[in-house]
Amino acid sequence: MALILHISDLHLVSRAASPALDDHKVGLVPAGSRFTHFEMLRLTLKRLGERLIADGKSLDAIVVTGDIANRNDEGGYVAFLELLDVLGLARPGPDRIVVVPGNHDVTAGLEPGDPHRYDRFVRFIRGAGFVTPVLNGVDQERPRPIQTSSISRWRSDYPYQFCCLFTGMPRRGNPGRDLGQCGIGARE
User: Fold this and answer.
1) What is the pLDDT of residue 44?
2) Considering only CA atoms, which of 144, 145, 99 is closest in space to residue 118?
3) Of 28, 51, 62, 125, which has the fewest Cβ atoms less than 10 A away?
4) What is the rounded distance in angstroms from the CA atom of residue 136 to the CA atom of residue 6?
5) Cβ(174)–Cβ(158) under 8 Å?
6) Contacts for 117 with CB less than 8 Å, ≥ 6 apart
7) Which residues, given as ranges, of the chain have pLDDT below 50?
8) pLDDT at 101
9) CB atoms within 10 A of CB 12
10) Which one is the CATH code of 4-137: 3.60.21, 1.10.10, 1.10.3470, 2.60.120?
11) Residue 118 burial class via C-beta count within 10 angstroms: exposed 0-12, middle 13-18, buried 19 and up
12) In a 10 Å sphere around its CB, with 0-12 CB exposed, 13-18 middle and 19+ buried, how is residue 48 labelled?
């Protein structure tokens, strides 16, 4: 059986800016002795790696589903790479690490399809050789807007790209027509 580690919603910042955990309102724990979010994750992954190696195992894959960095913070991506390294010999190769960006892993204020929206994600995640999905505006041209359905008027004012997946039989027996209406494969 495959051994897969699933990680999600880390919301990392730089190691130095990582917030302290727990409630320290009473001031009983000095600031320098407080355990941070990064340190907790680092220790958890380090112990996981050590345990796997001690048991003669290693991870077959890692799947990361979004929000690696908090607000697309560059330090968060650096911290993420450091965290994966602490798995040591239990860590799979980069071709077995799948990373899907979340809403915090894009540059805010840029329209979907803007190739700069994923600049940091591409630099750090693809730069490390990890597997990623197709990124809108980075890996393909934008699909042509829908022209032949009632949704096209609404869609032209809405900033997101839609893709239809038909799980049943195509209408009128013409799958090309259905896909074309959804903008799949259609180019301006």
Assistant:
1) 93
2) 99
3) 28
4) 24
5) no
6) 106, 107, 110, 111, 136, 137, 138
7) 144-188
8) 95
9) 24
10) 3.60.21
11) buried
12) middle
Q: What angle do CA 143, 146, 147 make, to 5 degrees?
A: 130
State residue 24's pLDDT score.
Answer: 63
Q: With contact defined as beta carbons under 8 Å apart, do 64 and 121 qualify?
A: no
Whole-angstrom Cα distance, residue 186 to residue 141? 10
Contact criterion met (CB below 8 Å) for 120 and 108: no
Cα-based torsion angle of the residue sequence 20, 39, 119, 135 in order, rounded to the nearest 10 degrees: -110
pLDDT in tens, 122-133: 999 999 999 999
Helix (H) / strand (E) containing 28: none
Q: Please tell me the predicted confidence (pLDDT) of residue 23.
A: 66
- Residue 117 burial (C-beta neighbours within 10 Å; 0-12, 13-18, 19+): buried
Q: Are 6 and 47 in contact (CB under 8 A)?
A: no
Domain boundaries, the chain: 4-137, 141-188
Given this model, what pLDDT does residue 176 score? 40
pLDDT at 85: 97
Residue type, 150: S
Report pLDDT for 86: 97
